[in-house]
Amino acid sequence: MFHTVLFPLDRSREAREAVDVVINIVEKYASRLVLLSVVETDSPNAEEGMASPEAVAELLANAQELFSQKGVQTEVIEREGKAAFTICDVADELDIDLIVMGCRGLGLTEDGASESVTNRVINLSPCPVLIVP
């Protein structure tokens, strides 16, 4: 059912909390797992420290090691651009069956929620999106 799963990462608590869900899905469906992190160099609201290619490379290496310790093989992709658009572009390019990502809705105003990366991915994704609270 979910042959290829995309897990976009950042340094958020929500992304860390989604790891167990990702592992469960990948194991259950024997899925290929692709980890993605986006360098947002031109965004004034770039994730803290995620505007640096070095920080992204370190995040991906750490995540790959974590999944490896759990017996899950991964592929990693690092891209530059606007997070939501880049996530959806990669999902389309790789024919992804499912995107799993953490939710960051708590504490946002109504305007902030509509501008969130998660909300944009939900609206633009070429495949199903599972949001982990």
UniProtKB/TrEMBL annotation:
One of the Pfam families matching this protein, by short name: Usp
Residue ranges occupied by any UspA domain in the UniProt entry: 1-133
Signal peptide (UniProt feature, chain positions): none
Recorded family membership: Belongs to the universal stress protein A family.
Name of the protein described by the UniProt record: Universal stress protein
Species of origin: Merismopedia glauca CCAP 1448/3
